[in-house]
Fold this protein.
Amino acid sequence: MASTSLLKLISTLFIFIALFPLQTLSESEDCGTESGGCINKSKALPLKIIAIVSILVTSMIGVCLPLVTRSIPALHPDRNLFVIVKCFAAGIILATGFMHVLPDSFNMLSSSCLKDNPWHKFPFTGFVAMLSALVTLTVDSLATSLYTQKNSAGIIPESGTTAGDAEMADVNVGQFHGHHHGAKPGNGGPPPLLRYRVVAMVLELGIVVHSVVIGLSMGASNNTCTIKPLVAALCFHQMFEGMGLGGCILQAEYKLLKRLVMVFFFSFTTPFGIVLGIALSNTYRENSPSSLITVGLLNASSAGLLIYMALVDLLAADFMGPKLQGSIRLQLKSYVAVLLGAGGMSLMAKWA
């Protein structure tokens, strides 16, 4: 089934990301090691501990907020306020890809610490981001097609199943024919849950990648001047990015266990990255060539995925859907929400 397979993929990738810094421990070549009055390991450690706790709490609040407020009529997925909040969160995810992850990758892969050939001869960041977006499109499309064919009866909410695969049963699969933007459920049936589940899983996959990388960089750094503003910026980022993911999880109508697993992966990846960075702070060098290449390529792939998901599966799916197409006023409010989310996250790029 779709969610189980993608959860396994996320788990495998999570383990890989946890192990990749070990490859840099044997890297003897270093360049541009941190120095200056802001470098203080003893003062940086308490700041990192504060960051772990604060980011964990704000991440859990952000991703859980859409899930626990479902009983509030105004925040139900069918209501206008939910759509506006989701657009705001999608703007944050879009700005994360364009203003944070992608520039970081450009800086790393164009660093003077890397050899001129091939790293300064070819725009690897843009190339990898483009490939990542295309691969995401392929996974997005094939996952929907394969699981729809495998479960030709379709799906209904997990809370309503009584036997068999709880995620795939009793909905006319014809509602998934063609692209999902603007598609209406056929014959008055429930919404296309399969699409929501694929979107939620693929989005979480991209978030897991860049969250661990961000946490690792913070944990390995002893620059107190950088850590202080980064904590506030990451709390803001995790809170509203979590709201976007939480909205997707809510629309996917998972069972409680799967919701908890997805909340866990989102909430603990950045704190886990910080802990990993602290553990490796004596040996891991963020400016070593192997670290720059590995983290730069991961950031580029994560940026491509996040940009694709924000534009195609979140914003375009909503703006070209019947709800927003049927109301110019709601469209304008949603545009403002997107601009506010993207603008706020872009402003955070000044500090993080």
